[in-house]
Structures are given as C-alpha cells and as structure tokens.
Amino acid sequence: MKIMIKNISILLVLMASSLSSRAQDTIAPQTYTFTLQEAIVYGLENSYTAKNASRDVAISLKQKWEIIAQGLPQIGGKIDYQNYLKQPVTLIPGEIAGGAPGTFVPVTFGTKQNVNATGTWNQVIFDGSYIVGVQSAKTLLQISENAKVKSDLEVKQAIVDAYGNVLISRKSVEILEKNVTTITKTLDDTNKIFENGLAEEEDVEQLQITLLGLETNLNNAKRQQAIALDMLKVTLGIPLENQIIITDNLEDLTMQYYDLGILQQEIAAEENIDYRIAEDQVNSAATQVKLEKAKALPSLTAFVNYGFQGNSNEFSFLDSDQEYFQSSILGVSLNIPIFSSGMRSARTAQKQIAYEQSLEQLEETRNRVKLQIASAKNDYKFSLDNYANQQKNLALAERIENKNQIKFFEGIATSFELSEAQSQLYQAQQDYLQAMLDVISYKAALEKVLDTSKYQPEDSQN
Fold it and tell me: Any idea what the Cα angle at residue 452 is, between residues 231 and 34, rounded to 5°?
C-alpha cells in the first residue's frame, strides 16, 4: 500500500512538471512596436528607473504620515504573566512571628502566579521638534517629487538616445550592405578585365582589401544593431527575450527634430529642475537649523493607563470566579532642557554652516543652469549646421567616387585613387549618419534643460 501511494505521488509530480513545462513552451515572447514618441510614453511608465522614482515618492508619502502620526494619540497594550517556579523568600524578625528576639523567620509573600494587563494612551501636548519634523516631512516629499521629475527627464533623453542608436545602426547596416554589393560588382568586373590582360593584379588585390574591410564592418554593424536593440529594451524596461519593432525612419525623425524655433526659447534659471532640487536642499538645511533650535524648548507629554492584576497559586485566570484588581494612572511629563555644556549650540552652529553652504550651492546651480542652457543651444545649433554640411559632403563624396570609378574602368585612374575615393565616401556616409543622430540627441538634451515640468501625481496623470 505504501509503495502504491509513493508511486501515485511520483506520477502526480511528473504530470505537474510536464504541464508546467508545456505552459512555459506556449508562452511566446511578446513583440512591441514603437514610434519614438510611443517609446517615450511607454518608458516613462515602465522603465526600471521611472518605477523606482515613483516608489521613492510613495516612500516619502509614508514617511510624511509617519512623522505626523508621532504627534497623534498612541495607544499600546501589555500583558505580563509570571509563574514563580521557586518563590523568593524574605527573612523577617522572629519577634514579629512570636519567636525569640534576634532570630529571623523565612516567609514568602504573594501568590505563585499572577497576571498583569495594562493599556496606555500617550499624547504629545507640545514638542518643538515635532512641529519642525512635520515641516521637514513636507520638504522631504518635495525633494522626492522633484527627483521624480528629474528622473523622468533623464529617462526620456536616454530613450531618445537608445532609439536613435537603433536607427543609426540599422541605417549603417543598409549602407554597408549596399557598399558591399557595389564593391563586389566592381571587383567582379575588374577581375574579368584582369583575366583578359587589360588590368593589373594589384587592381584586383586593392579591391579585395576594400571588400574584406567592408565585410568586417558589416558584420560588426549587425552585432551593434542587436546590442542597440537590447539596450533600448533595457531602457524601456522590457525583458531581453521580447522583440521590439521600431517604425520611425532616421531621415524623417531628423527632420522632426530640426527646429530652429527652440533656439529662441528662454526660461528663468529658477524654473529648471536642477535649480529646484538645489532649492529643496536649502529648505532642508534651513529645517535642520530650526530642528536643532527646537530641541532647546521644553516638551510636554501626557499619558493615561488602565490595567488589572490577577493573583493565584494555580492557573485559574480564565475561571469565571477569578478576582482581578483594577488600577489606573493619569500622568503629565514636562521635560526642560537646562544645560548641555554647549553641545546644543555646537550642533546648531554646524547646521547653520551647512545651511550657508547650501545657499552657496544654490547660487552656483543658478549660474551652472544658465551655462548649461547656453551650451545646449550651442551644441544643437552646431549639430544643425554640421548636418547641413555633411549632406553636402556626402553628395560630393558620392560624385567623386563615381567619377573615379569611371576613370578607373577607362584606365585613367589607378586602383589606389579609386580606393581613396571609396574610403572618403564611406567616411562621409558614417559622418552623415552621426550628424543625423547628433541632431536628435542634442535636441533632446536642449529640451531637457529647458523643461519646466512640475510633478504630477499619477492619479491626476491618469
């Protein structure tokens, strides 16, 4: 019988594991399709950084209530049960018990077992530290909310950069594949000419070198494309085993991000998120000064408790005839700091110095924000100018390469000259791709420093 039960148990385990593995096999990886704007919306809700920033705000909300609750009524209960396995013995003078003077009689007091239950209500009546603590809780919440705004801005820029890298890697693969096809045809034609004795072997070898370099770069570009896609997944908070399809085109997206109007946009430094975070640090430091000063004020608390006690030599506390004795106390406690040998004043002085440091950092942040805005505008303006120039350079490099190819087949240009023109074209292609990526990336960086968004609770966003 035991063997049968054991066999049945093993069979059930095998069936369960089989069903589990089948269920896993049927779960196919998800596929996500994004434009850049759709990716930004998704990432702001689902990226690892955005989620943790939201949790930080939630923690601050709980911390705020924790501090507020410290000044509200606190009720606690306590139950003690004691069983004297060996009751303590007390010696009393013998004459009390009728014995001879100078002798002692051992006696035990009380019962062997007792139960004592007490409930206590504590209430803060006045505490300067509590009042300042409530203010600091509000500042802490403000810090976490501004940190969430900062985090969202960084996530947005990271998504733009990651999305752009996917586009540029994809475009790079397309261009390299086209170059490989072109150079392969040129090599085949040149090889036929060489076989007919109308070209030198060096011409064929030079083209073979160029082709090998292109094939190496193409293989590397394909690997980079896969890495770029995985990086975008990580940035968006999507597991790597899932698939992503991006629908934007690099050239079209570049034109969307080609915006001269943003260069005229101005904001006050005080509206920048970095300045607001620095301002939060000033408020926090000021609160710390108030807190140290508040510690020198008296504090007043009160309490009320009520309890009952039962005594017995046997465990009869659950019996209906068990007798309990009630007790209750009302108390008020006034704590008055009098003398601390300069400790409190030293602590206050430290916090005051820290507050002055935060003011200096705030002024530094103001100037740094102005510099960041000016620098971001300059970078973006340069990217626009560079994009226009790289378009022209690419067109020129294509014409030069085409002319040298015609000259090469006509016997006017050498293979070395053709190779130089091809290398120049390939570099122009990469520079053009990078120029388009720079337009997108620098526009996102400029939008970040010009952003004046305030924290919006998730409920209001929905």
Answer: 30
Residues 382-436 pLDDT 10s: 999 999 999 999 999 999 999 998 988 888 888 889 889 999 999 999 999 999 9
CATH number at residue 421: 1.20.1600.10
389 and 315 in one domain? no
What is the SS3 assignment for 425? helix
Q: Could you list the residue range(s) of the whole structural domain that residue 102 is in?
A: 74-126+299-336
| Domain co-membership, 80 together with 212 | no
* Run of H or E including 221: helix 201-236
Phi, psi dihedral angles at 318 (to 5 degrees): -100, 0
Least confident of 19-23, 54-58, 390-394: 19-23
pTM, full prediction: 0.82
pLDDT value of residue 326? 93
Shared domain check, 429 and 445: yes
How many C-beta neighbours within 10 Å does residue 10 have? 10
CA-angle at 240, arms to 234 and 241, nearest 5°: 160
Close Cβ partners of 305 (under 8 Å, ≥ 6 residues apart): 118, 119, 120, 121, 328, 329
Count of domains observed in the chain:
2
Is there a single domain that holds both residue 380 and residue 443?
A: yes
Distance between CA 205 and CA 224 in Å, rounded?
29
Residue 247: strand, helix, or coil: coil
**Alpha helix segments (H runs only) across 104-127:** none
Domain boundary among 310, 336, 362: 336
